[in-house]
Amino acid sequence: MFKDLIKKLRKDSIFEGSFLLISGSVVLYACSYLYHFYTGRVLGPEDYGIIGALFSLLYIILVPFNAIQMGVTKFVAEFKAKNEYGKVKSLVKKAYKKLFIYGLVITLIFIFLSRFISDFLNIESNIPVMLLGLIIIPSLLLPVSRGVLQGSQLFRKLGINMSFEGLGRISFAVLLVTLGFGVNGAIFALVLAFTFAFIVILIQLRKFLRYKEKKIDSKKIYSYSWPVLFTTMAFFIIFSIDVILVKHFFDPIRAGFYTALSNLGKIVFFLNFPIIQVMFPIASEGRTLKMNKKELSNILYKSFFMIFIIGLSVILFYFIFPEFMISMLYGSEYLEISGLLGYIAVFIFLFSLSYLLAFYNLSLNRTKFVKWLLLSVVLEGILIVLYHASLLNVILSLIGLNSLVLLYLLIYTKYAKN
């Protein structure tokens, strides 16, 4: 009976794809967390608070870039369904040319504003901020390439590429911090890791360069990109703005504590994100192939169930063993925040389910929910500004807001028309 279940699961595209991507993601996020645990322990809470704030800024910078990946994924999935791989080549070449120019301009602007950004975040030197700006060009081009692998449902190759990024991140960080470069070395390690992953993915995409280019409808792609951009932007601001505002309102030590707390909480999302990455191209392809409502809903139900089980498991573990997790990964000086660990996991769990529902709707070209999602971003900022007497107040505000977002998306998903 157990063998039959395993065979059935291996034939299920959602499960198999999720397993392959989760495997790659585990390497990426394990290395990313090793990066955080290493820098948190070696540099101490105050310098680690700087890294945490810059990481949250990085998440916001990467918002449009992640939207690029989801947009490319959507159209590559449609081209795959129609066996139009020449259009994939055309899409990639056009995207590379435009995004390199945009990336260069954004990098120069970011470096120019580095002094203002460092002052707002209470960082003495603007060098870490300037170094962070160097990540923009590789992180613009990498999502295009990964979108091709994701949309083509080449999840094994995508997982391998993510693994290379993670291994590069921790390896370069240990090297540069050990050599005495401190925060600057930890930030520059990210630039090197993204560049390394991009070089690897160029090799992985060689087969797509063999096809003859075919003309694509750029206007259709750009029009779809806007709701994807706004959705991704809203979610990643919700995901990151709390750390930035805590860094602004709290003292450096407590900001460092919250950064550690936030990173442990985000494990819930990082474990579940591969499931969403698998669901999105499969649902997009299903819509192109005109699957019926029941078949499309089954894709969502399977994904929702897997995220629910994984998220609930992590939450229970965090509530039962908070001291163990924090002392093992960050050290005893962070134990003061152990009582908050389960609550931050609840916030990220609600966030993960909302993220799934939003991108399921986008895969079916449903976009009316986006304006209300953007409103929730404004509400989050207002809540944290008004209620930041303690770190617990901040977290409870996030749980309340994300509960409402999830409820709205559940209702929208049930009643929205394709």
Topology:
Layout: H1 2-11, H2 13-61, H3 63-81, H4 85-112, H5 114-120, H6 127-133, H7 136-151, H8 155-178, H9 182-204, H10 218-249, H11 252-265, H12 267-288, H13 293-320, H14 322-329, H15 341-363, H16 370-386, H17 391-415
Helix pairs in contact: 2-8, 2-9, 2-10, 2-11, 2-12, 3-4, 3-7, 3-10, 3-12, 4-6, 4-7, 6-9, 7-9, 8-9, 10-11, 10-15, 10-16, 11-15, 12-13, 12-15, 13-15, 15-17, 16-17
| Ends distance | 38 Å
Number of helices: 17
Strand content: under 5%
Structural class: mainly alpha
Notes on the structure:
This protein has one domain. The two termini are 38 Å apart. It has helices at residues 2-11, 13-61, 63-81, 85-112, 114-120, 127-133, 136-151, 155-178, 182-204, 218-249, 252-265, 267-288, 293-320, 322-329, 341-363, 370-386, 391-415. With 418 residues, it is mainly alpha-helical. Helix 3 runs antiparallel to helix 4 (85-112). It has 17 helices and no strands. The longest helix is centred in the first third of the chain and has 49 residues, at 13-61.
